[in-house]
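Hello again, I could really use a second opinion on something today. For a while now I've been wondering how a particular protein folds. Please have a think about how the structure follows from the sequence. Here's the protein in full, and shout if anything looks odd to you:

***
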Amino acid sequence: MRERLRTWRPATPPLPADLEASVVDTDPEWFGRELAIAAQPPWWLWRLALTTVSPAVSLFGRVLVTGAIPEHLRRGPLILAANHIGDYDTFTVAAALHRVGVVPRVLATGGIMKAPVAGPVLERSGGIRVDRGTDVAAHAMRVVLVALEHGGQVLVYPEGRVGLTADGWPERGRTGLARLALQTRVPVIPVSQWGAHEVLQYGNDWGKLRTALSAAWRQPALRVHVGAPVPLDDLEPGRTGDANRARTRIMAAITRGLVPLRAGQPTDRIAFVDPTRPVKAVAAFPGGLVPADVPGAGPPPPPAGTLRR
């Protein structure tokens, strides 16, 4: 029984004929499956899970959502660029995006995707495996590209990891997402979020259970703001410096959207103390101060009265 659970995975749709040449013998064994899934509409079970299981996210805090995505954008591919503050925020952001009418495909670490049962289910749900620091890490972007070409809406963390700045503001991010956005011309929707770091501590030990139980009791606010598309139309994929400019605009939009979510809290440090969380980076915009001349910073989110619970 244990062996059957370890090797079980749901049926994968066949790889479309036009993608067969994209898979070669040297590719990792999961690559063909993920390409096939990326070319399909979201799995019905994933849609059902977002509808029925999303409310369970609120067991550990009050999910509060601001902003919206226009209907005409929801009908096509989207790059959903979010800041990454902890292991729980994927659940929070996925639930928030479902509330605004989006069924996101999520990038996940190789460790999660290799887990029995949970990994195969996440893969079949459109999860895209990212093996950071390996020679197959680039395969994730190839899967993302196929998903976008087939109308997928992909949740991406441009920082590439849980942010490790002292003040909690997003890091500079990487240019991979920016290059992808310029190449595909898919709208980039900035998603700012705060509070999920209080549910699961950074350290991977039994302390996660302690902080989760504490969050279930305290019910911290898990705030998510979905912003307007980042303006990138004046930038070109092959022009020197434009990938960096796109990255700056994306991180500026995320940071600007985060400011009201942290209202009443310190801007130079994280109020919630997590002794297991290291500090290894500097924020793109320390203190949340985005220069006014950065295109795409946009207006702040609407007031708290418009929050959707």
